[in-house]
Amino acid sequence: MYGVTDELLRTRLLSLAAQGRQDGWWHDFNERLEPGAVDFVSLEADTCSIRTFDAQLIPGLFQSEAYARAVISGSGTALRRSPQEIETDVSFRMRRQRIHTRCDPPKIAVVLGEAALRQRTGGRDVMRGQLAKLLAMGSLPHIELQVLPFDVETNPGVDGAFVIMGLEPDGILEVVTLHSMTRTWYVDEPSDVEHYVSTFEWLRELALPEPETLTLIDRISSET
């Protein structure tokens, strides 16, 4: 796995990924997706916690089907995918969201940039539907949703989106994932992981509290 240097963590991640290719619902997608996508979701399904920041896009676990289709078909990745493969990617993304209906879903904390809410990805109707879904998901007990508004003067997330996955309840085993058009990178060096954790907590301090976040999403939806 790209970027993993700690041998114990690397062994754990490879074991989870190998088991996931065989045992998970994503087994049906093994032959139709990039191996990195299958590896990532096998780890995602095993997490106890997820912390994610994205300034530009609604994360995949929160996307409506129409929004996901617009994002995937309009991304650089689509240059390498046929229309049928794009539909497979959309179906795969929707299946990932079953993680929310598990009897023990992971704790998920999300910080979104306001731009992710205002960019009319897919057009007005698609974005209205996406914002409605985001509002509904923001009320789920395992989700903490915050927005980093335009008027903050500091943005510690300028270096890009990232996901922190906690693979053990006590947080001892954590890995950061970074996505590009061609691969997923895993960051496991403790000092680097701690840097991402500190950055995420800083973003949460700067972001709107949850009630104000939902109010802002509702207002932007009415303006879209």
List the helices and strands and how they pair.
Layout: H1 7-23, H2 35-44, E1 49-54, H3 65-73, H4 83-96, E2 107-113, H5 114-118, H6 124-137, E3 143-148, E4 162-166, E5 174-179, E6 184-187, H7 190-206, H8 210-223
Parallel strand pairs: 1-2, 2-3
Antiparallel strand pairs: 1-4, 4-5, 5-6
Helix pairs in contact: 1-2, 3-4, 6-8
Q: What would a concise description of this structure say?
A:
Helices cover 45% and strands 15% of the residues. The chain has 224 residues and is an alpha/beta fold. It has a single domain (7-223), classed as Endonuclease, Chain A (2-Layer Sandwich), CATH 3.30.870.
Order of helices and strands: HHEHHEHHEEEEHH
- Content of β-strand: 15-25%
The number of E-state strands comes to: 6
**Amino- and carboxy-terminal Cα gap:** 41 Å
Structural class: alpha/beta
Mean pLDDT: 86
Taking the sheet with the most strands, its summary is: 6 strands, mixed
Q: Which keywords apply here?
A:
alpha/beta; Endonuclease, Chain A; six-stranded mixed beta sheet; globular
Q: How does this structure look, described?
A:
By secondary structure, the chain is of the alpha/beta class. The chain has a single domain (7-223), classed as Endonuclease, Chain A (2-Layer Sandwich), CATH 3.30.870. The protein has 8 helices and 6 strands; from the N terminus they run ααβααβααββββαα. It has helices spanning 7-23, 35-44, 65-73, 83-96, 114-118, 124-137, 190-206, 210-223; strands at residues 49-54, 107-113, 143-148, 162-166, 174-179, 184-187. Helix 1 (7-23) packs across helix 2, helix 3 crosses helix 4 and helix 6 (124-137) packs antiparallel against helix 8. The termini are far apart.
